[in-house]
Structures are given as structure tokens and as C-alpha cells.
Amino acid sequence: MAGGSDPDKMIAKADKLTKLSLTRWSADWKSATVLYEQAANAFRVAKDYEKAKEAFEKASKGQEMISSPWDAAKHMESAAALAKELGKWNEVADFYKRASELYVECGRSQPSSDALAKGARALEEAAPDEAIQLYADACSILEEDGREQMAFDLYRAAASVYIKVEKYTDAAAFLLRLGLAADKCNATNSQCKAYLSAIIVYLYAHDFKQAEKCYNDCSQIDAFLGSDQGRFSSKLLSAYREGDIEEIKRLAQSTSVSHLDNMIIKLARKLPMGDVSALKTEPPMEEGEEPLDENDLT
């Protein structure tokens, strides 16, 4: 490369511009930042991702120093994308978090949330717990700004990761959080689907008591009680109480389920999980009567 377009030389020149010396009493961040940006793009084109990543970090710092947090955030996102290419997952999380903070400085909640969501998607396989935290933080940013409707897909994404790592109670909690957000936005259909999805997750985890409690709690909301999803939930729980495996399987194939998210459909199609005969409701016992031995119920 010619001297003027050699990205290594650009970095060296930019570094000098940011350091004070006997002949330089103030750092020239503006000129340095232009050089960092040019070097970063040159390294990226040459597929030298490690050097490109470091150059974008420096360019981000430069934009901060010249009071341009928006451009600083953009460069930090570029560094994060390159860290992903390099499989440096800790840096992926750190860079997207920093980009999010910089967007907050600009007063921009949507790009701030988007940056965390990008990080979460990048980390779903390599670091699911970190991905979930990033999704949660992304949702919180939008909630605080009264933009819950923009977070619906993030709630679902977080629930999906929880299901992948078999943390079903946490998945259901996120679906209920989606239901609450949908309620605030008057998005009744999304709200009712979220509540039904949470009930299905509890049933998949073979936690009938929690599924029933969830149904009872959600039924305090008229919109759910009178909805298709509410009626379906009632039928599904009744089939569980009756220990009717065939009815549970039939209900799992219904349109009420097929209109839900794929991750929930997959769980529903596997119902019932475990032995449902023990859930079969017995008539109330007379006072002093001994309970029947379940082992004799054949």
C-alpha cells in the first residue's frame, strides 16, 4: 500500500495526534478520528477484523471526545459486529452495551434498545444467559419510554431463549410481562395469546398448579376471560383435571394453538408431559373418610 493509504500508518499517525508532547499541547481528536475511521474501513475491507475492531473502538472514542455520541455509538456497533465475527463474545456484549449507553446520551431510546437486541441475538447460542439479560434491558428501555409496543418481539425472543435452556418458569414470566405490556397498548389479541402461551409453558413443565393459578389470575381480566384463548385455556385445563390424554392431544392441534408463536406450538404439540392421571379430580371426601390409594386406581 502507498504510505498515505496504509491503515497501520494511519493508526500510528492518529495515535500521535491524541498524545500530548513538548510540541503538542492539546490533542487533535478531530483529525485523529478521521484517520481512525479510514483505517477501520480499510482493515475491514482487507478482512483484518481484529485490527478493524480496534480501529473502530478508537474511532468511537474519538467521536466521544469531539462530542458526537451518535457517531460514537455507530462505531461501537461496528466494533461489536466484528467482535462477533471473531467469536469474542464478552466484547460483543460490552460493545453493544456501550453503544446503547451512547444512544441514551442522544436521548434515543429505540436505537439504544435495538443495540442491546442485536447483542442479544448474537449471543443466543454462545451465551444464552447474557442474551436474556440484554433482551430484558432492551425491553426496560422501551418500557421506561412508554414504547412497550415496540418491545413485543423482544419479550418473545427472551422467552424463546429461556425455553431453549429449559428455564420454563422464567419463560412464562416473560410471556406474562408481554401480556402486561400488550394490555397497556390495548393490544388485546397479543395480550390473550401471551397469557395462553404462559399457561402452555407451565403445562409443558408439568406444573399444573402454576398453570391453573396463571389461568385464574389472567381470568380476572375480562378481555382474556371472554376471548378464544381464555375459553381454550379453560377446556385444556379441564382435560387435564379429567386426565383425558386424547382430549389434551386433540386440543393441542387446534387453531387456538396454531396461531401462537412457533416456540409455543412446538411445546403444545408435545402435551401432555408426564402422568396426568394423578391430576384427575376426585369427588370431595366426607369428613373422617380415608383418601383412596392412588395405586389402586386402575
Describe the structure.
With 298 residues, the protein is mainly α. It is built from 16 helices and no strands. It has helices at 7-18, 29-45, 49-65, 69-85, 89-105, 109-123, 128-144, 152-164, 168-184, 188-204, 208-218, 222-225, 228-241, 245-252, 255-258, 262-268. The longest helix is centred in the N-terminal third of the chain and has 17 residues, at 29-45. The model is unreliable at 283-288 (pLDDT under 50).
Strand content: under 5%
Basic shape: elongated
Radius of gyration: 27 Å
Helical proportion? Answer: 55-70%
In total, how many beta strands?
A: 0
What oligomerization state is this entry in?
single chain
Biggest sheet statistics: none
Give start-end ranges of low-pLDDT stretches. 283-288
Rounded mean pLDDT score? 91
- Which structural class do the helices and strands define? mainly alpha
- Helix count from the secondary structure assignment: 16
How widely separated are the two ends?
84 Å
The arrangement of helices and strands along the chain is HHHHHHHHHHHHHHHH
List keywords for this structure.
298 residues; mainly alpha; 69% helix
SSE order and pairing:
Elements: H1 7-18, H2 29-45, H3 49-65, H4 69-85, H5 89-105, H6 109-123, H7 128-144, H8 152-164, H9 168-184, H10 188-204, H11 208-218, H12 222-225, H13 228-241, H14 245-252, H15 255-258, H16 262-268
Helix pairs in contact: 1-2, 2-3, 3-4, 4-5, 5-6, 6-7, 7-8, 8-9, 9-10, 10-11, 10-13, 11-13, 13-14
